[in-house]
Amino acid sequence: MTPSAPKTIWSATVNKKSFELLINSNAVLLDVLRDQVGTLGVKRGCDLGTCGCCTVMVDGEPRLSCLCLAGQVSDTAITTVEGLANGAHLAPIQACFAKYGGSQCGFCTPGFLVASQALLDDNPSPTDQEIADAIEGNLCRCTGYQQIIESIQEAAKIHRGEVAHPQPASDPHPDPHPDGPGEPSMPPGHAK
Amino acid sequence: MSAGYRQQPGNRSSKRTDGKRVAGKQVFPPPGSGGSRPVMKERDLDFIPESVGGKEPQPAGSHIHDRIRTGTVVGKSLSLVDSNAKVTGQAWYGDDVRLPNETIGKILRSPHHYAKIKSIDTSRVEALPGVISVATGQDAANSFGVLPVTKDEHAMAVEKVRHMGDLVACVCAETEAIAIEALSLFDIEWEVLEPVFDRKMGLEDVDEPIHWRGKYHLSRTNVQKRVFQEFGDRSLVDNPHAASHGKWSMEGVHHGFTEPHAVVAHWDPNGRLQLYTPQQVPHYTHRALSTVLDVPMHQINVIRTFVGGGFGGKSDPFPHEMCAAILSRKSGRPVRITFDREEVYWINRGRHPSDIEVKMTADDVGRISGFDIDALIDGGGFASFGHVTSYYNGVLATAPYELGSFHYTGARVWTNKPASGAMRGHGAVNTRCAVEVGLDEMAEQMAVDPIDLRLANLLPPHSRTITGFRITSNGMREALEEVRDGSKWDEKFRQLPLGKGIGVGCGFFISGSGLPIHWDPNRFPHATVHIQVDMDGGVTVHTGAADIGQGSTTAVAQVVAEVLALPIEMIHVRSHESDTAPVDLGSYSSRVTFMNANAAIRAALEIREQILNAAWDILGYHPNTLVLNDRRIYYKHDPSIGVSYLKALHKAQEDKGSLIASGAYRSPPMGGVHKGAAAGLAPAYSFSAYVAEVDVDVELGLVKCTNVWAAHDCGKALNPLAVKGQIIGSCHMGLGQVLSEKMVYGRTGHLQNANLLEYKIPSVHEMPHVVPIIIESCDPEGPFGAKEAGEGPLLPILPAVVNAVYDAVGVRFRDLPLTPDIVYKGIERKRKSLKLDDCLELPNPRLEHGPMQEVLVARANEHKTRDKARQRTEDTSHYVNGVLFGFDPNIPLEDQVDGWRMATEPDPEQLAELGLAGKAWLKKTQREMGRDD
Ligand code: FES
Ligand code: FES
After folding, report:
1. How much is the ipTM here?
2. Which residues in B lie closer than 8 A to residue A82 (C-beta atoms)?
3. Domain B487-504+682-847 belongs in CATH node 3.30.365.10
């Protein structure tokens, strides 16, 4: 929250969509993203640069949006957690956070995802230490970080092409019809 | 079963004509009965005795629910069912609820620690353009509180403020800027009162106690609750072979969840309140709203948003929730209130700052003859869960060990600080740390290995603790053995070089509180779950269970999928709204998975039965001979005879449309009858054992925990991935408490670190490598054998680290957290006392096994065989705490030992020797003083 100030026009690309908004000239990026752009996936945990929940990518660099005036990043390309997925297909990092327990309550998750995506874009083969350095500004109170690091390592494997991207989890369930398999299934251990 | 117990809750037990004991009538089936008895019969305690859990010998690892297992999902590592919403940023937390035409609310907080409000003038606030509504304490005079016995909170201060940051007034405006400006326009006349910050001073009489309890008030002190408990044979503690005596001082810690509190209230056009809040316990908020607003509960819909971490910190009904509702009622518009990080600390409810004194003794064969615990805990300005915490500090330390006697005095005092409350490991963490470190010290005196000391004193499965808690499954021994092997303990303990250390600690925690706080469990069950299956075959589960990130929604979905043999994608859990969810007590005391999943199993079994009956109609084979597999039902002996799930479902729906079932869970009768017997009572208990390795910088006092082997007995891991996540997360939180986290109150009583920069939560760099080890003891009553895994795993990390620091530098620390200044001072003191020039010359402790070691190892081995037989229910004899001391479990102990104590009030001659908190017993209540105003 900031004292009132003259209005100014702010333009930027957020998640590949361009915006032109009338903002307070002293508006903080986090407020603009949440209240005006509508990317509510960017979380506010502290407003003081201490939790990392508000991390977004500005031209590919991770940045704490609560410590950044919107005016400083006008005419940049901003990516929030909403911009990581490819349409309905989760990005590898998202799929891995879901699959390997990188997210419990999920409040810190957007910040971690953005920070680790920025890392993987830079360095698809990070060591555990490099990962720790990349996420040191992000607090997670639920997971104890261990499964987050595992998730990032798994995503790195996908980035390096060592493992296939798992069936994108947000695809419809491949067998939505509850009628079941056509052939009778055998009970386990039943030889006929 | 000894005569000293009666079922509680419940009716007195009656005898059948054949002489068997039965419990009173139960409307709901006993948990774990597996559902083969469609109509509930009277519970036959000899069939599922209180302390046995099934008559038939069962191999270890099998469980009464096993016969309904379909092998679908239980025991598989699954991602949380809501994880896709979380990783795409679509999960909606408190502040993400944006309703059209919303206004922004702000709260005016007290600038004084303790003051009377003489007048509030809001005229300047109301005159500010853009202000919509203003409210003060006068708008809501009804008090509320999470426990019905201590309703001492108001939406806003009515007569006085009780701590800095206490709520005084609130306002809503068109924009946040206007609302903040409005806060500066209140004109308030204060009468400042003398505050109390020191918890020891809370025991003294003062002119103006922080709360007044009328005839129950203890003299004129600030004591909110005092507890005395004494059990066992006190003569055993005389002439101890080893003894430990420690005085601890522990700072308050905060949950530190990442999502600050937020609430959105909206009175809809029908005059109903819709309240969105990230709550662990939406039902209590629901009740409190009804009381405070004088609106019937059915006119309120509490909608739980996603919860960005709770850990106990979002389980009280909160005054700001009331404020939002009041403002919304006044303004007719939605009101959104979001806390900043500082406000989160003002509302607090974190772990109690505590002074704990523990004396313990062991006899000449290494049995623990006595635990004496005294705990003075600082409650801050309000009661919150404190009534329960006062008990938990003592009673949850009585297991997993067999004790000769137990003596506990506890007191919780009000001070002019933000209120303490429930936090992960509620009430058990601090004393557990003190007790486990005491055991380490006694082991050293006896020259034995501390793990062997523990192994030789464990209560077996299916037994009773000294205060009468019923232990069913018990994986304590296995947990200790696992961490001993995993950490290569025997090669490291007392053998590492100076500055490197290894230590052990154990834990014991409830898996759901046995008594629902707000109602008589004879009248309502603990948990209810509804299931609905419509023509499409999808299963909708309605539950009030509040998923706060621990994955309870996933657990409920899993057990339903398991019973119905459906892929988990076909199970849809709806748990957000009180309008559609059956009443549920929410997420606290680690009850959700145990109770809700049990209720869900019951409901799912009903659906399963309807579907199988329909298949019977179609196939002509009795349901007993039918097998449910992935969306197909077939004849056991010829799988080619079968029918699809959907066909059977449609058949079942012919006459009644969609299938609907309701399942409920209530805890079985259990526990003692003494005052406070219900505190700590749970249908099952979890056990854990950790070994931690630390590096201590001997010159700087910096402690780093490097490795943790963390074994937790969760009964059965429904979802191993989630259980491991809970174990590692618990390590993280406990590590914060033992090494870096504290709420710092300055000399003026002001909270000095209400932000995440100075309140030091471990970052990724401080995390050790944790090896989570899951122990499965298969609880006879848990859902598919499961017990809790959310809180218990926090307990052992504290003592494990403190013990490891001793192993590294030979100094016993009893002030938490172990910040470098404290460790440095301790090392310096030791260096000076040994007259060394350099702290790098400090001798670190070594262990030469004494004669007792053999005795303990022999006993531990004997007990291992005993425990195995009991776990497998090959041995179903009764076992109560005291058998190790030679008592007969079949005769009430008080008939066997002269002077066997079971007291909840001190004898007059004891008064002189009570500890710090025990001093509260020197005071009289107003009633006893002849006043009853
Ligand atoms: S909200 Fe930006 S770092 Fe916490
Ligand atoms: S998942 Fe809850 S804070 Fe990280």
Report:
1. 0.90
2. 88-90
3. yes
